[in-house]
Amino acid sequence: MSKIILGLVGPIASGKGTVKKYIEEKYNSKDCRFSTALRDVLNRISVPVNRENMQQVSTVLRQTFGEDLLAKIIVEDAKNLESDIIIIDGVRRKVDIKYLEEMDNFFLVAINAEAKIRYERMIARNENLGDQDKSYEQFLADHEAEADKEVPVVMKEADFTIDNSGDIALLHSQIEEIISKILKK
């Protein structure tokens, strides 16, 4: 079987990073993130790396160079990585998977959890500048931003779905079930 490409889609703090980390550790997978190119640009121009700035850079790049720009970057990154399993982290738009769907062994995995649980996780991880200071209402409003509003639509296209509202053992068992099904194909 050629390399397996797993695209992870889910709302903010649903557990995409946790799923990615588990698969990296257990299966020695490699990953590509849509946000990597955005973080690179922001760091290069010495602008704070926060959700709002990443959304703005994403919008400008896509409007200037084509809506599928980031999708093209991700496909090339995935092709060039040496691993049996490649994780694509941060799928948000239908166009993000346009070229991935043309690849052999691409599977879209939707990850979700209850909103309150996701909010608490976002505060605890403090991944982006300002996250720990957000109110629950601001957190919910972030889902309506241009970068995240298409996530529910893309999630409906998923080959597999993970409910990450439970504990870590339940999450791991769902991941193992998905990997097992893929390997049997």
Can you offer a commentary on this structure?
The chain has 185 residues and is α/β, with parallel strands linked by helices. The chain has a single domain (4-184), classed as P-loop containing nucleotide triphosphate hydrolases (Rossmann fold, 3-Layer(aba) Sandwich). The chain is 49% helix and 15% strand. The protein has eight helices and five strands. It has helices spanning 16-27, 34-44, 51-65, 69-80, 115-125, 136-142, 151-155, 168-184, and strands at residues 4-9, 30-33, 85-91, 106-112, 160-163. A five-stranded parallel β-sheet has the order 2-3-1-4-5, with helices on both faces. It is globular. The protein starts with a strand and ends with a helix. The mean pLDDT is 91.
CATH superfamily: P-loop containing nucleotide triphosphate hydrolases
Strand content: 15-25%
Tell me what the CATH architecture is: 3-Layer(aba) Sandwich
The biggest sheet amounts to: 5 strands, parallel
CATH class: Alpha Beta
Roughly how many Å is the radius of gyration?
16 Å
Number of helices: 8
What would the average pLDDT be, to the nearest integer?
Answer: 91
Could you give the topology of this structure?
Blueprint: E1 4-9, H1 16-27, E2 30-33, H2 34-44, H3 51-65, H4 69-80, E3 85-91, E4 106-112, H5 115-125, H6 136-142, H7 151-155, E5 160-163, H8 168-184
Parallel strand pairs: 1-3, 1-4, 2-3, 4-5
